[in-house]
């Protein structure tokens, strides 16, 4: 992310934080509106005019007002006006920033209602089910034979009766949005939401891969070690993969700790073949 975008995002989040704090449970509604605004900008040729560095900041803010005043909450209009006054390295970065702000607003509303941890766990459960079920994962991914609306309706049928409204709103966003990363899709989006929810609770998610399931005692011991090393509360995402043979592989953000037998054997083969 280039300097212009990073600075604009940082200033936006700093200005938006007290608005969310005062909004309380209304954060849910504000978040839904922000995501809707992002979707409309992305679906229409609006990104260019709203991020054109050759246009005056005041002109871009006036355009944002004309487009959305009276259609969404005034706080959302003011947010967008402040964002388009800033400088974006790429037009798509504005959409990405709106997405993150919308998700955080929904999560803030859940926190105000005392349900943030529940929402995180619900989205996390959906993520695990999607990852484990190839048929569901393929059905939710973009394809020529299905429309975005059809995939959203499928997600609502699959999960709507099992999770809360805030969690379902976030799952719908995960299905509707196509990330920039080459390999990602719905699982990537679901992971992004759970990471943001975890961060709001001052914890990180650690992906743990072992050959056999860890006992509760070993889970507790591993979590204790990670908390001490990372300085954050840690939530374990456990996966069993017999191919690792033995040991444990832990991935937290960009940190990888691999003490598996498979890696040791690979290292040995490299040494022998030199």
Shape: globular
Which regions have little confidence, pLDDT < 50, spanning 5+ residues? 264-274
Proportion in β-strands: 5-15%
Helicity level: 55-70%
Straight-line N-to-C gap: 38 Å
- Quickly count the helices: 13
Class by SSE composition: alpha+beta
Tell me the series of helices and strands, N- to C-terminal.
HHHHHHHHHHHEHEEEH
Strand order of the largest sheet: 2-1-3-4
Sheet with the most strands?
4 strands, mixed
The whole-number mean of residue pLDDT values reads 87
Radius of gyration: 21 Å
Number of strands: 4
Summarize the SSE layout with pairings.
Layout: H1 3-23, H2 27-43, H3 47-51, H4 57-68, H5 74-85, H6 91-112, H7 116-132, H8 134-140, H9 148-159, H10 165-176, H11 185-200, E1 203-210, H12 216-230, E2 233-240, E3 248-252, E4 255-258, H13 261-273
Parallel strand pairs: 1-2
Antiparallel strand pairs: 1-3, 3-4
Write up this protein.
- The protein has 274 residues and is of the alpha+beta class.
- The chain has helices at 3-23, 27-43, 47-51, 57-68, 74-85, 91-112, 116-132, 134-140, 148-159, 165-176, 185-200, 216-230, 261-273, and strands spanning 203-210, 233-240, 248-252, 255-258.
- The chain has a four-stranded mixed sheet with strand order 2-1-3-4.
- Helix 12 (216-230) links the parallel strand 1 (203-210) and strand 2 (233-240).
- Helix 1 packs antiparallel against helix 5, helix 1 runs parallel beside helix 6 and helix 9 packs antiparallel against helix 10.
- The chain is globular.
